# Entry
Amino acid sequence: MKEAALTLYKTQNTQALLRGSVITLRRKCGKSNCQCSQAEPHQTPALSYSLRGATRILTLRPQDLREVRAALVRYRKALHQLDRQALAGIQQLRQRIEKEKTQARQEKKR
# Structure
């Protein structure tokens, strides 16, 4: 189960996509003799994401960071590509409608 944690969400022949942001959680553990009580608090990497309008946080292991960051980049690239395709579809629809309107006007004149 060592490598299973992050590889489970990969589908066959595709790389994982993740939505959200990598954040750093900082906290003091409460132990009076711990270094965090006097100096820097403990730090833990985490993935922050929204689900049904609520922010969720998934703590990460340091060894997961590289893969998570790469999956976040892939998501942003895929989203950007999808947006470009949608805008191209709108442009094609606009052109088709204008062409059909022009043809209808020309037929009316005849």
In short: The two ends are 75 Å apart (CA to CA). The CA atoms of residues 32 and 38 lie 9 Å apart.
